[in-house]
């Protein structure tokens, strides 16, 4: 059974009287342990698709399945639980909380999940795990720094550590290297690849950058709101 499936997923945005069809029947599946790139030109619907996969938005029609069960029609509480426990996300713009240190940013998912009292009871173990994750992404010495004291690559690595705090099976990344220079971006990709290989973390990476997608096991291309046939493209 695939870890994640999109089945005939459709999404149209409405701007006043104008309709903007973005996804016109997207089908693909990702197996556990894969590192898959979703590519397409700017405006092709990559972020829209990733938001649907993450249950941040709902498709107009079609289904998204996680471990075989539909997740596109979950109620809010169940969606929040899924996102907090199974799916980690990172974004082009990092989305760290500016007033928190790197370590505190990494801790936010468990604060949300367990509440302040629950967090406080297990505080030592959580801080230990968050420190280990920061070490893992090469930021041990930066744990006490605020985001404004970190470089772009360091902020993205902090965001990766935060996404891993809840031990998700799936990591969704939207243009994770989009704001980084090439060398720094490659460092971020290398970390994602190592996590994928060492822990079996499934990674879905959205990018318009061919070099980034070349780092993936497999590429899913969005063209005209559908998945282009990889066999035709390769020919
Ligand atoms: P990509 O991530 O591939 O660049 P997006 O998924 O962000 O593409 O956007 C696809 C298309 O949908 C674009 O034409 C964009 O302008 C439009 N779009 C995205 N979000 C909205 C929205 N919330 N409302 C209206 N149109 C949107
Ligand atoms: Mg986008």
From TrEMBL:
<dbReference type="InterPro" id="IPR027417">
    <property type="entry name" value="P-loop_NTPase"/>
</dbReference>
<feature type="domain" description="ABC transporter">
    <location>
        <begin position="4"/>
        <end position="235"/>
    </location>
</feature>
<dbReference type="GO" id="GO:0022857">
    <property type="term" value="F:transmembrane transporter activity"/>
</dbReference>
<comment type="similarity">
    <text>Belongs to the ABC transporter superfamily. Macrolide exporter (TC 3.A.1.122) family.</text>
</comment>
<dbReference type="InterPro" id="IPR003439">
    <property type="entry name" value="ABC_transporter-like_ATP-bd"/>
</dbReference>
<dbReference type="Pfam" id="PF00005">
    <property type="entry name" value="ABC_tran"/>
</dbReference>
<keyword id="KW-0813">Transport</keyword>
<protein>
    <submittedName>
        <fullName>P-loop containing nucleoside triphosphate hydrolase</fullName>
        <ecNumber>3.6.3.-</ecNumber>
    </submittedName>
</protein>
<dbReference type="GO" id="GO:0098796">
    <property type="term" value="C:membrane protein complex"/>
</dbReference>
<keyword id="KW-0547">Nucleotide-binding</keyword>
<dbReference type="GO" id="GO:0005524">
    <property type="term" value="F:ATP binding"/>
</dbReference>
<dbReference type="GO" id="GO:0016887">
    <property type="term" value="F:ATP hydrolysis activity"/>
</dbReference>
<keyword id="KW-0067">ATP-binding</keyword>
<dbReference type="InterPro" id="IPR003593">
    <property type="entry name" value="AAA+_ATPase"/>
</dbReference>
<keyword id="KW-0378">Hydrolase</keyword>
<dbReference type="InterPro" id="IPR017911">
    <property type="entry name" value="MacB-like_ATP-bd"/>
</dbReference>
<dbReference type="GO" id="GO:0005886">
    <property type="term" value="C:plasma membrane"/>
</dbReference>
<dbReference type="InterPro" id="IPR015854">
    <property type="entry name" value="ABC_transpr_LolD-like"/>
</dbReference>
């Amino acid at each position: 059974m695939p870890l994640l499936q999109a089945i005939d997923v459709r999404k149209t945005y409405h701007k006043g009287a104008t309709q903007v069809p973005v996804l016109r029947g997207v089908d693909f599946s990702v197996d556990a342990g894969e590192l898959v790139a979703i590519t397409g030109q700017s405006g092709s619907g990559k972020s829209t698709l990733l938001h649907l996969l993450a249950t941040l938005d709902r498709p107009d029609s079609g289904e998204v399945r996680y471990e075989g069960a539909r997740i596109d029609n979950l109620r809010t509480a169940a969606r929040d639980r899924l996102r907090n426990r199974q799916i980690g996300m990172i974004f082009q713009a990092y989305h760290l909380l500016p007033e928190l240190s790197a370590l505190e940013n990494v801790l936010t998912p468990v604060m949300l999940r367990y509440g302040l009292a629950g967090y406080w009871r297990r505080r030592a173990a959580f801080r230990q795990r968050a420190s280990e994750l920061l070490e893992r992404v090469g930021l041990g010495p930066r744990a006490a720094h605020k985001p404004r004291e970190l470089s772009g690559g360091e902020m993205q690595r902090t965001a990766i550590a935060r996404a891993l705090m809840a031990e998700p099976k799936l990591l969704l990344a939207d243009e994770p290297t989009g704001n980084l220079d090439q060398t720094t971006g490659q460092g971020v990709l290398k970390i994602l690849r190592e996590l994928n290989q060492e822990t079996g973390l499934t990674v879905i990476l959205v990018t318009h950058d061919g070099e980034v997608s070349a780092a993936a096991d497999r590429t899913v291309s969005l063209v005209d709101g559908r998945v282009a046939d990889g066999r035709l493209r390769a020919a």
